[in-house]
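To the team - S-adenosylmethionine complex, inputs and output below.
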Amino acid sequence: MLIPDSPPPLSPAEAAHSERVAEHLRTLIKAAGGWLPFSRFMDAALYAPGLGYYMAGQARFGASGDFVTAPEMSPLFARCIATQVAELLERAGGGDVVEYGAGSGALAIGLLQALARTDALPRRYRIVEISAPLRAAQRERIARHPELMNRVEWLDGPPAEAWQGVALANEVLDALPVDRFRAGRDGCEAIGVVAAGREFDWQTRPADATLTNAIASLRVSLPDGYVSELRPMLPAWIAAATSTIAKGALLLSDYGLPRTHYYHATRDGGSLCGFYRHRRVDDVFARPGLQDLTAWVDFSAVANAATACGLEVAGFATQAHFLASLGIDREIAAALDGADTRESMSLRQGASMLMLPGEMGERFKVMALTRGIERTLSGFSFRDLSMSL
Ligand SMILES: C[S@@+](CC[C@H](N)C(=O)[O-])C[C@H]1O[C@@H](n2cnc3c(N)ncnc32)[C@H](O)[C@@H]1O
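Output:
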């Protein structure tokens, strides 16, 4: 995709909305005594009701939006995931699929269509989506497939009762707020946000006991002055998403690394950034409420949180290895059969984006966390990197 040098200017309505979000953030900073941990800034910029990027209809998926996720990139993604989901559903003895953060609804549709073709539909397809505008968009898009709609329902949070089946979250963990810190020989510092007139700026403070302990429990040796992030809400999110899974799995895909790579000396500065109209933006304070904020996922933290909840890490692989293990080559061949020139080109381009190391193939990882499921899963048969966690 060709991207012009600079994004289009904000419309008056966008500028007014962003100013309302900025005002809300300034109010939060003031109420907190003038300094806000970055996780609270990010949480509000993304999720403040009626204001945040995901909560006010600003989140735009796909080619005309801010970013393209794998299910938007190519139908092949959902078809491969369907093979893994079908296997897991069979091993769980049937059950539901629960998708967290379903975005535009593309994965839900692709997955249900693929599972229908192999007669492996789940009992229900339940979507846990915290964003009302995205819920409405998902409902509208899925309703265009009436044969799927009767299986789909929306939940306000993780299922409260015990259930079996497969939970999925594609690019959800990277959207959970992070805190920033600076490691130091004489103690660590929290890097938080202050108001500087109508702008925002960074300011450091000595880390409190919670942050100090969280950094210590990473058990990595960090150079003096090293700046990075950690995700304080991650263990609670994993616990909430998995506590009622009696038998089944949580499949996670996202950009991320095992901890030793995540906190490698060469990654000083961390991975926090914004996304706006397909541009990676270093200034995370720009356009509050209009740009996505994200940071890579420490998959060792995910594995630790999962094992603390009694789950097993049943596999960890690059997206390329995962999709290859699940037969993306067969899916490509089947999709190309009968496709016209335009469709063939789009399929080939989509497959390259999913698989190439410089695109999504290596940056993105897939992790399976299971309870009560026989361990060896097809998606990790080519390569399982669990030992690197
Ligand atoms: C980057 S988007 C990914 C969307 C979609 N999974 C995809 O791959 O296209 C992040 C999604 O996670 C949702 N989300 C963020 N925090 C969440 C949470 N705690 N529970 C459920 N969904 C959440 C957002 O509303 C949004 O739908």
